[in-house]
Amino acid sequence: MSIWSEARLVAGKDLRIEARSKVALTQVLPFGAIVLLLFAFALDPDRGILTKAAPGLFWVAVLLATLLAVARAFSIEEQHGARDALRMSGLDGGAVFLGKMAAIAVELLALELVLGLGVVVFYDIRIERVGVLLLAALAATLGLAATGTLYGVLAAGLRVRETLVPLLLLPVLAPVMLGATRSFEAALGGTTSDAWPWIELLGLFAVIYVTMGVLAFGPLLEEA
Amino acid sequence: MSVVCLRSVVCLLGRFPALTGIDLTVDEGEIVLLSGPNGAGKTTLLRVLAGLLPIHSGEAEVLGHDLALDRRSARRSLALVGHETGCYDDLTVAENLRFAARASGRGTDAVAPVLGRLGLERLAGVTHARLSAGQRRRLSLAAALVRDPELLLLDEPHAGLDADGRETLDAVLAAAPGEGRTVVLVSHELERARALADREVVISGGRVQPETPVRPETEVDPPAPVAAASPAEQPAVPDVSVAT
Description:
The complex is a heterodimer of chains A (224) and B (244).
Chain A (H helix, E strand, L loop, with lengths): L2 H19 L1 H21 L3 H32 L3 H7 L4 H30 L7 H26 L5 H12 L1 H16 L2 H32 L1
Helix pairs in contact in A: 1-5, 2-3, 2-5, 3-5, 3-6, 3-8, 5-6, 5-9, 6-7, 6-8, 6-9, 8-9
Chain B lengths: L1 E12 L2 E12 L3 E5 L6 H8 L7 E6 L2 E2 L4 H5 L2 E4 L11 H11 L7 H7 L15 H13 L5 E5 L7 H13 L6 E5 L3 H7 L2 E6 L2 E2 L36
């Protein structure tokens, strides 16, 4: 099998598990929605601030939900010795990385779609440039999923992984937060040229972490 | 032809020397029983053979691949049935087996015969989470067989199985040499396992006991189990510094 076929196999397996367990639907999505609602409650007295801060608040909610999605993606490998079975399977480490990353990315895109609708409705904002927003969201999601998958396997097998992953991941994802928020702001009222440098930053970040993941995931899985 | 060839293999679990100089050769088509007291290093040895644990020193070759250099290639042609199933709770029996088959590069048409062989057809659509302990053991063995391994490593395969399951397992083991499979198994059900095995290797204190013939020169009956030597009777561990 090619690396792409193997990646599709792993992604299909992870997505099937999520579809059947409904953890993403019943826990990750409500968590993101609750975060958005809490921001709304906290900033409600000043509607102007809420509208202005909407891009940042949206991505903070997505980022926190990413932590749950990453934890879930690796917790399924901890049960019943599945991680050892994955190591024994003969699958290429890079393919496993791409598959798990793709599954997380699909879940995050679905989450962003729902949370984005929530932001439009509850925060009363109007998106001027949907294309810019979609492009930025795609690049940011790839960066989040790639980084999450890489740091997820780094902490896999450790008893402190639940607390270690956020500690490692959140600082690393600062450029994604920055670029995604600025792009979102440009989609709300700026120009496409305002967003472009940030989208490039998001794209570069994603490329770097996808490359690192493909190269490093196999050895890290062996050591986990 | 040797499927397994270990020379003075040392494996440390943290600072604890789990294997302290194992020499073992297993030929193609053999069924070898590893026996010995709890904590002797039997499971560790199986995990070393499966390429799941690195060796600290010595030489380890499995299926012609040096485990120190290329564990992944060896893994493609072997399967380990351990204490856990390695399957996913939210996937059905058939889905778990299809994933194992495709991951090992085999087609999903390998699944149906294995389901039938292990009596799992009626459970094909049941998720792993809903299986009993015995059914999970069968699934674990099925997930190994669906890979059509040249080397089958079994850790307490009879544990948790009912009478019918044990019969099925014994039939699978008895058929293994004819299917070109080599088997290394660990079992505390010694009488049952001895009846299936070509020979028995006793492990104690992380090494093969000297009384156990590693490679019989002539056809002989399987040796009687040898009582585990006390640590004081064992030779010193070479080349390993152990901080206590």
